Amino acid sequence: MTALSLYFSQDDMNSLRQKRLGKFSEAKLSILGMLEQLEAEPDSSFERNVVCEEDEAFVLSADNLDAVEVRMRIFCTRNFLLFALLALQGIVDSFQNLSMQTWNNSLKQMHNFSR
């Protein structure tokens, strides 16, 4: 018998478990998607437990769910930063190409002018 079961009925406990399991499953799917986008693997044993274990095997305590939420925010931030970096790289590449074209055009004009 747990401390919670002294205050809540079995139906309340089942309802709480289902709510927590739903929250965990949703977070797990998000984390898996972000790991795939990042082409990354879980970094810690906790992250491996979250993404590799069966949902029912995960301890659905409030602390664990809070920790999953923190990990999800970390992966969201990493994902955002990766896409921002890729976008910036595209901009840098565009400016580099434009600079090279401008330089080459300037060289052609100087060559034509010197004739």
Indicate the proportion of strand residues: under 5%
Ends distance: 96 Å
* Low-pLDDT segments, ≥5 res: none
Percent helix range: over 70%
* Quantity of strands, as a count: 0
Compressed to H and E, one letter per element, the order equals: HHH
Biggest sheet layout: none
Characterise the protein shown here:
The chain is 78% helix and 0% strand. With 115 residues, the protein is mostly helical. The chain has a domain at 10-88. α1 (10-38) runs parallel beside α3. The radius of gyration is 26 Å and the shape is rod-shaped.
Using brief descriptors, characterize the structure shown.
115 residues, mainly alpha
Summarize the structure in short:
This protein is mainly alpha-helical and 115 residues long.
Task: Tell me the layout of helices and strands.
Elements: H1 10-38, H2 45-52, H3 62-114
Helix pairs in contact: 1-3
